[in-house]
Amino acid sequence: MGLNSCYKECKAHGKCLSINFNRKLFVCELLSEKKSEAKPLADDQDSVYIEITEIIEKKCDGEPCNNYSTCIRTSLNNSLCIVTDCSEVYPDLDDGAIADRTFTPISATYGCNVGFTGVGSVKRVTCIPGGKWSSLSYRCEPPVHGGWGSWGSWGYCPVTCGGGTRYRYRSCNNPTPMYGGNSCYGSSSDSVYCNTNGCPVNGGWGSWSGWSSCTKTCEKGTKSRSRSCNNPYPAYGGAACSGASSQPSDCNTDKCPAYGGAGCSGASSQSSDCNTDNCPGFLYRCNDLQSSATSDNS
């Protein structure tokens, strides 16, 4: 079919107001509307858009054809009403409308109103002349905005001390966003610190102090030194240091020197005369008598 034939066929259809003729595929689309700002129709290097300007009455030999018939002139110069349209009205689509129509073949393509989303695999219906429309498997759905579901349980803390983080989660499924609806606002996860108590620290000994003074200068005294459990200090239930915090030691174990030092000069005893007076009634002195007595006894 050429462009002129396409144009003449549109003029024969009472509902046809314009055509789109594809130069490459030689396809003639008969349209029931004219181009507008809201409905731009093809008119480029591949297609030609033409509007029907003449008003043609659908009459054959003075008698009108029905709504789904077209007046065709035969080779005998007679006019006949030939069924060229579908015998049914166009199917209705809630929240949608016919976006495009063709008359050869007879078809209607549907689209959804602004703000609605089309769902389904078949949005174009066809019809043979005088027949019924094929099934429309298409619907228009309003947007469904997402809503958060309930929080899940808190997860386990990864550490037993020293501070960690545990999480819980929720899903955007109450309801799930569909048909162009907005996703849920906010985060799908939540966190909290856990087991922030300090970890046990076992104590460690620091360095020994210096030795103290000896308690004696001779004959074995005692000295001591000490250390502290501060390297580190035990904390958060950690064990204290094992062992003693002080250490004693003997010192100055030499014997002390004898009393008086290196030795005394002179006699260690001294005698002296005493009672040198004469005894009463005798002519001898007392010590003489004592000496005499001593001699007799020997």
Task: Break the fold down into its secondary structure elements and pairings.
Elements: H1 3-12, E1 18-22, E2 27-31, E3 47-51, E4 59-60, E5 63-64, E6 69-73, E7 79-83, E8 96-103, E9 106-112, E10 117-122, E11 124-127, E12 137-141, E13 164-169, E14 189-194, E15 221-226, E16 246-251, H2 286-297
Antiparallel strand pairs: 1-2, 1-3, 4-5, 6-7, 8-9, 9-11, 10-12, 13-14, 15-16
Keywords:
TSP-1 type 1 repeat; 7% helix; 28% strand; mainly beta; 298 residues; 2 helices
CATH superfamily of the domain at 145-199: Thrombospondin type-1 (TSP1) repeat
**Which fold name fills CATH's third level, the topology of the domain at 145-199?**
TSP-1 type 1 repeat
Classify the secondary structure makeup into a structural class: mainly beta
Mean pLDDT: 80
Largest sheet descriptor: 3 strands, antiparallel
Instruction: Summarize the helix and strand pattern as letters.
Output: HEEEEEEEEEEEEEEEEH
CATH A-level architecture of the domain at 145-199: Single Sheet
Strand content: 25-35%
Task: Output the CATH class name of the domain at 145-199.
Answer: Mainly Beta
| Strand line-up of the largest beta sheet | 2-1-3
Beta strands, count: 16
Radius of gyration: 65 Å
Distance between the termini: 188 Å
**Secondary structure: helix percent:** under 10%
Regions with pLDDT < 50 over 5+ consecutive residues?
Answer: none
Question: What general outline do the C-alpha atoms trace?
Answer: rod-shaped
Compute the number of helices.
2
